[in-house]
Protein backbone atom coordinates (compact mmCIF):
# COMPACT_ATOMS: atom_id res chain seq x y z
CA UNK A 1 0.00 0.00 0.00
CA UNK A 2 1.33 3.43 -0.90
CA UNK A 3 -1.65 5.64 -0.01
CA UNK A 4 -3.97 5.53 2.97
CA UNK A 5 -7.20 3.78 1.86
CA UNK A 6 -10.53 5.58 1.89
CA UNK A 7 -14.17 4.47 2.17
CA UNK A 8 -14.45 4.74 -1.60
CA UNK A 9 -12.27 1.66 -1.88
CA UNK A 10 -14.71 -1.27 -1.57
CA UNK A 11 -12.04 -3.52 -0.10
CA UNK A 12 -11.66 -1.13 2.86
CA UNK A 13 -15.23 0.08 3.35
CA UNK A 14 -15.68 -1.59 6.76
CA UNK A 15 -12.10 -1.16 8.01
CA UNK A 16 -10.96 0.87 11.01
CA UNK A 17 -9.29 3.59 8.93
CA UNK A 18 -8.87 5.81 12.00
CA UNK A 19 -6.65 3.20 13.66
CA UNK A 20 -4.76 2.66 10.41
CA UNK A 21 -4.30 6.40 9.99
CA UNK A 22 -2.61 6.67 13.39
CA UNK A 23 0.27 4.42 12.30
CA UNK A 24 0.46 5.46 8.63
CA UNK A 25 3.04 5.66 7.08
CA UNK A 26 5.51 4.66 9.79
CA UNK A 27 5.89 1.09 8.51
CA UNK A 28 6.70 0.04 4.96
CA UNK A 29 5.45 -3.37 3.89
CA UNK A 30 8.12 -6.02 4.22
CA UNK A 31 8.09 -8.85 1.68
CA UNK A 32 9.13 -12.43 2.24
CA UNK A 33 8.72 -15.57 0.22
CA UNK A 34 7.73 -19.20 0.77
CA UNK A 35 8.29 -21.76 -2.00
CA UNK A 36 7.06 -25.35 -2.17
CA UNK A 37 8.77 -27.22 -5.00
CA UNK A 38 6.79 -29.27 -7.52
CA UNK A 39 5.53 -32.50 -6.03
CA UNK A 40 6.62 -31.60 -2.50
CA UNK A 41 4.63 -31.04 0.70
CA UNK A 42 5.11 -27.95 2.87
CA UNK A 43 3.66 -25.91 5.71
CA UNK A 44 3.00 -22.25 6.35
CA UNK A 45 2.58 -21.70 10.09
CA UNK A 46 2.21 -18.07 11.19
CA UNK A 47 1.73 -17.05 14.82
CA UNK A 48 1.31 -13.29 14.59
CA UNK A 49 2.05 -11.63 17.92
CA UNK A 50 3.67 -8.53 19.41
CA UNK A 51 2.93 -4.83 19.05
CA UNK A 52 3.29 -2.02 16.49
CA UNK A 53 2.01 -2.13 12.93
CA UNK A 54 2.44 -5.45 11.10
CA UNK A 55 2.21 -4.84 7.36
CA UNK A 56 3.90 -7.78 5.61
CA UNK A 57 3.36 -9.21 2.15
CA UNK A 58 4.04 -12.94 2.09
CA UNK A 59 4.51 -14.38 -1.41
CA UNK A 60 3.75 -18.11 -1.49
CA UNK A 61 4.52 -20.25 -4.54
CA UNK A 62 3.23 -23.83 -4.61
CA UNK A 63 4.68 -25.85 -7.48
CA UNK A 64 2.84 -28.23 -9.80
CA UNK A 65 1.36 -31.14 -7.90
CA UNK A 66 2.65 -29.81 -4.58
CA UNK A 67 0.66 -29.49 -1.36
CA UNK A 68 0.59 -26.69 1.23
CA UNK A 69 -0.97 -26.71 4.68
CA UNK A 70 -1.19 -23.38 6.48
CA UNK A 71 -2.27 -22.16 9.92
CA UNK A 72 -2.40 -18.41 10.55
CA UNK A 73 -3.17 -17.27 14.10
CA UNK A 74 -3.51 -13.48 14.42
CA UNK A 75 -3.41 -12.81 18.15
CA UNK A 76 -1.45 -9.58 18.47
CA UNK A 77 -1.52 -7.11 21.37
CA UNK A 78 -4.73 -5.21 22.11
CA UNK A 79 -3.65 -1.84 20.67
CA UNK A 80 -2.00 -3.11 17.48
CA UNK A 81 -2.83 -2.72 13.78
CA UNK A 82 -2.33 -5.65 11.41
CA UNK A 83 -2.68 -5.47 7.61
CA UNK A 84 -1.18 -8.76 6.47
CA UNK A 85 -1.34 -9.95 2.84
CA UNK A 86 -0.68 -13.48 1.62
CA UNK A 87 -0.13 -13.67 -2.14
CA UNK A 88 -0.50 -17.35 -3.05
CA UNK A 89 -0.02 -19.02 -6.45
CA UNK A 90 -0.99 -22.65 -6.97
CA UNK A 91 0.49 -24.18 -10.10
CA UNK A 92 -1.23 -26.97 -12.06
CA UNK A 93 -2.59 -29.69 -9.79
CA UNK A 94 -1.32 -28.04 -6.61
CA UNK A 95 -3.34 -28.02 -3.38
CA UNK A 96 -3.52 -25.66 -0.42
CA UNK A 97 -5.52 -25.80 2.79
CA UNK A 98 -5.32 -22.67 4.94
CA UNK A 99 -6.86 -22.07 8.37
CA UNK A 100 -7.07 -18.51 9.73
CA UNK A 101 -7.98 -17.57 13.30
CA UNK A 102 -8.24 -13.77 13.54
CA UNK A 103 -8.76 -12.52 17.09
CA UNK A 104 -6.10 -9.98 18.14
CA UNK A 105 -5.41 -6.25 18.00
CA UNK A 106 -7.67 -3.24 17.66
CA UNK A 107 -7.67 -3.60 13.87
CA UNK A 108 -6.70 -6.97 12.42
CA UNK A 109 -6.90 -7.56 8.68
CA UNK A 110 -5.78 -10.81 7.05
CA UNK A 111 -5.99 -10.69 3.24
CA UNK A 112 -5.40 -13.50 0.76
CA UNK A 113 -4.90 -13.17 -2.99
CA UNK A 114 -4.93 -16.68 -4.46
CA UNK A 115 -4.23 -17.60 -8.10
CA UNK A 116 -5.28 -21.09 -9.23
CA UNK A 117 -3.81 -22.72 -12.32
CA UNK A 118 -5.14 -25.83 -14.12
CA UNK A 119 -6.73 -28.32 -11.72
CA UNK A 120 -5.48 -26.57 -8.57
CA UNK A 121 -7.46 -26.85 -5.34
CA UNK A 122 -7.78 -24.24 -2.57
CA UNK A 123 -9.54 -24.69 0.77
CA UNK A 124 -9.94 -21.95 3.38
CA UNK A 125 -11.33 -22.24 6.88
CA UNK A 126 -11.59 -18.83 8.53
CA UNK A 127 -12.59 -17.87 12.08
CA UNK A 128 -13.10 -14.38 13.51
CA UNK A 129 -13.52 -13.94 17.28
CA UNK A 130 -13.95 -10.32 18.37
CA UNK A 131 -15.02 -8.33 21.40
CA UNK A 132 -14.80 -4.86 22.96
CA UNK A 133 -14.25 -2.38 20.09
CA UNK A 134 -12.14 -4.60 17.83
CA UNK A 135 -12.37 -4.46 14.05
CA UNK A 136 -11.35 -7.80 12.49
CA UNK A 137 -11.42 -8.76 8.82
CA UNK A 138 -10.75 -11.66 6.49
CA UNK A 139 -10.44 -10.48 2.89
CA UNK A 140 -10.02 -12.93 0.00
CA UNK A 141 -9.64 -12.77 -3.75
CA UNK A 142 -9.53 -16.20 -5.40
CA UNK A 143 -8.71 -16.11 -9.10
CA UNK A 144 -9.48 -19.19 -11.19
CA UNK A 145 -7.06 -18.77 -14.07
CA UNK A 146 -7.07 -22.28 -15.55
CA UNK A 147 -9.62 -25.03 -16.18
CA UNK A 148 -10.79 -27.54 -13.61
CA UNK A 149 -9.71 -25.64 -10.50
CA UNK A 150 -11.72 -25.85 -7.28
CA UNK A 151 -12.02 -23.60 -4.23
CA UNK A 152 -13.99 -23.68 -0.99
CA UNK A 153 -14.16 -20.93 1.60
CA UNK A 154 -15.90 -21.43 4.94
CA UNK A 155 -15.70 -18.41 7.27
CA UNK A 156 -17.38 -18.17 10.66
CA UNK A 157 -17.50 -15.04 12.81
CA UNK A 158 -18.46 -14.47 16.47
CA UNK A 159 -18.44 -10.89 17.77
CA UNK A 160 -19.55 -9.30 21.03
CA UNK A 161 -19.27 -5.89 22.67
CA UNK A 162 -18.97 -3.21 20.00
CA UNK A 163 -16.74 -5.35 17.78
CA UNK A 164 -16.94 -5.42 13.98
CA UNK A 165 -16.27 -8.62 12.06
CA UNK A 166 -16.08 -8.55 8.26
CA UNK A 167 -15.62 -11.00 5.41
CA UNK A 168 -15.12 -9.72 1.88
CA UNK A 169 -14.64 -12.61 -0.52
CA UNK A 170 -14.28 -12.38 -4.28
CA UNK A 171 -14.12 -15.31 -6.69
CA UNK A 172 -12.93 -14.25 -10.14
CA UNK A 173 -13.14 -16.80 -12.97
CA UNK A 174 -11.13 -16.00 -16.09
CA UNK A 175 -12.25 -17.03 -19.59
CA UNK A 176 -9.85 -19.97 -19.40
CA UNK A 177 -11.35 -21.10 -16.09
CA UNK A 178 -13.84 -23.61 -17.53
CA UNK A 179 -15.09 -26.37 -15.20
CA UNK A 180 -14.44 -24.15 -12.18
CA UNK A 181 -16.10 -25.33 -8.96
CA UNK A 182 -16.10 -22.58 -6.31
CA UNK A 183 -18.07 -22.08 -3.08
CA UNK A 184 -18.14 -19.43 -0.35
CA UNK A 185 -19.97 -19.64 2.97
CA UNK A 186 -20.02 -16.93 5.64
CA UNK A 187 -22.03 -17.04 8.86
CA UNK A 188 -21.83 -14.68 11.82
CA UNK A 189 -23.13 -14.72 15.39
CA UNK A 190 -23.75 -11.46 17.21
CA UNK A 191 -23.38 -11.90 20.97
CA UNK A 192 -24.31 -8.30 21.85
CA UNK A 193 -26.57 -5.64 20.38
CA UNK A 194 -23.62 -3.33 19.75
CA UNK A 195 -21.71 -5.88 17.67
CA UNK A 196 -21.65 -5.75 13.85
CA UNK A 197 -20.93 -8.30 11.14
CA UNK A 198 -20.38 -7.39 7.48
CA UNK A 199 -20.38 -9.74 4.51
CA UNK A 200 -19.64 -9.04 0.87
CA UNK A 201 -19.37 -12.25 -1.17
CA UNK A 202 -18.72 -11.50 -4.83
CA UNK A 203 -18.56 -13.50 -8.07
CA UNK A 204 -16.93 -12.29 -11.29
CA UNK A 205 -17.31 -14.93 -14.00
CA UNK A 206 -16.10 -14.77 -17.60
CA UNK A 207 -16.29 -18.53 -18.34
CA UNK A 208 -19.56 -20.24 -19.30
CA UNK A 209 -19.10 -23.75 -17.84
CA UNK A 210 -18.70 -23.21 -14.11
CA UNK A 211 -20.27 -24.06 -10.78
CA UNK A 212 -20.08 -21.15 -8.33
CA UNK A 213 -22.09 -20.54 -5.18
CA UNK A 214 -22.01 -18.23 -2.19
CA UNK A 215 -24.08 -17.57 0.90
CA UNK A 216 -24.02 -15.28 3.94
CA UNK A 217 -26.11 -15.10 7.12
CA UNK A 218 -25.93 -13.00 10.28
CA UNK A 219 -27.89 -13.83 13.41
CA UNK A 220 -27.94 -14.60 17.12
CA UNK A 221 -27.65 -17.83 19.10
CA UNK A 222 -30.67 -20.10 18.77
CA UNK A 223 -32.79 -19.40 21.83
CA UNK A 224 -34.50 -22.78 21.54
CA UNK A 225 -31.15 -24.55 21.59
CA UNK A 226 -30.07 -22.50 24.61
CA UNK A 227 -33.32 -23.34 26.41
CA UNK A 228 -32.87 -27.04 25.60
CA UNK A 229 -29.38 -27.14 27.12
CA UNK A 230 -30.35 -25.07 30.16
CA UNK A 231 -33.42 -27.24 30.80
CA UNK A 232 -31.05 -30.20 31.09
CA UNK A 233 -28.91 -28.56 33.70
CA UNK A 234 -26.27 -26.84 31.60
CA UNK A 235 -25.48 -23.39 33.08
CA UNK A 236 -26.34 -20.49 30.73
CA UNK A 237 -22.73 -19.39 30.20
CA UNK A 238 -21.60 -22.92 29.44
CA UNK A 239 -24.57 -23.48 27.11
CA UNK A 240 -23.67 -20.37 25.14
CA UNK A 241 -20.04 -21.50 24.95
CA UNK A 242 -21.01 -24.97 23.68
CA UNK A 243 -23.23 -23.58 20.93
CA UNK A 244 -20.65 -20.97 19.93
CA UNK A 245 -17.87 -23.53 19.69
CA UNK A 246 -20.06 -25.83 17.59
CA UNK A 247 -20.87 -22.91 15.31
CA UNK A 248 -17.19 -22.11 14.73
CA UNK A 249 -16.22 -25.75 14.20
CA UNK A 250 -17.68 -25.62 10.67
CA UNK A 251 -14.60 -23.67 9.58
CA UNK A 252 -12.31 -26.43 10.87
CA UNK A 253 -14.15 -29.39 9.35
CA UNK A 254 -11.93 -29.35 6.26
CA UNK A 255 -8.77 -30.20 8.24
CA UNK A 256 -8.04 -33.77 7.17
CA UNK A 257 -5.56 -34.63 9.92
CA UNK A 258 -7.41 -35.54 13.11
CA UNK A 259 -4.65 -34.35 15.45
CA UNK A 260 -4.35 -31.00 13.66
CA UNK A 261 -8.12 -30.51 13.75
CA UNK A 262 -8.29 -31.31 17.45
CA UNK A 263 -5.46 -28.87 18.14
CA UNK A 264 -7.27 -26.13 16.19
CA UNK A 265 -10.52 -26.83 18.04
CA UNK A 266 -8.68 -26.66 21.37
CA UNK A 267 -7.22 -23.30 20.36
CA UNK A 268 -10.66 -21.95 19.50
CA UNK A 269 -12.09 -23.25 22.79
CA UNK A 270 -9.33 -21.52 24.74
CA UNK A 271 -9.96 -18.24 22.93
CA UNK A 272 -13.69 -18.40 23.64
CA UNK A 273 -13.04 -19.11 27.31
CA UNK A 274 -10.64 -16.16 27.51
CA UNK A 275 -13.20 -13.88 25.86
CA UNK A 276 -16.10 -14.88 28.13
Describe this protein's structure:
The chain has one domain (10-220). The longest helix has 18 residues, at 258-275. The protein has helices at residues 17-23, 223-231, 236-248, 258-275; strands at 30-36, 41-48, 53-54, 56-62, 67-74, 81-90, 95-102, 107-116, 121-130, 135-144, 150-159, 164-173, 180-190, 196-205, 210-219. Helix 3 (236-248) packs across helix 4. Strands 1, 3, 4, 6, 8, 10, 12 and 14 form an eight-stranded parallel β-sheet that branches. The chain has a seven-stranded parallel β-sheet with strand order 2-5-7-9-11-13-15, with helices on one face. The radius of gyration is 19 Å and the shape is globular. 17% of the residues lie in helices and 47% in strands. By secondary structure, the protein is of the alpha/beta class. It is built from four helices and 15 strands.
Number of domains: 1
How many strand elements?
A: 15
Q: What is the number of helices?
A: 4
User: Rounded to an integer, what's the Rg over CA atoms?
Assistant: 19 Å
**What is the oligomeric state here?**
single chain
Q: Span from first to last CA?
A: 36 Å
Largest sheet, described in full? 8 strands, parallel
**In terms of per-residue confidence, which ranges show pLDDT below 50 for 5 or more consecutive residues?**
none
Task: Write a short abstract of this structure.
By secondary structure, the protein is an alpha/beta fold. It has helices at 17-23, 223-231, 236-248, 258-275, and strands at residues 30-36, 41-48, 53-54, 56-62, 67-74, 81-90, 95-102, 107-116, 121-130, 135-144, 150-159, 164-173, 180-190, 196-205, 210-219.
Amino acid sequence: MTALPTRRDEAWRYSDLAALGEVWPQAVAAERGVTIAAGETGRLDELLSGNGWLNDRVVVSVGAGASLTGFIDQGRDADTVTTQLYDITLEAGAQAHIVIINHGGCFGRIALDVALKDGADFDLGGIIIGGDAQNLEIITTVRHLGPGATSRQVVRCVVGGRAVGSYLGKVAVARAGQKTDAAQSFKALLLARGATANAKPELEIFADDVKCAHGATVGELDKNALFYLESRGVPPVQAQALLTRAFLSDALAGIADDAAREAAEARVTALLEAAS
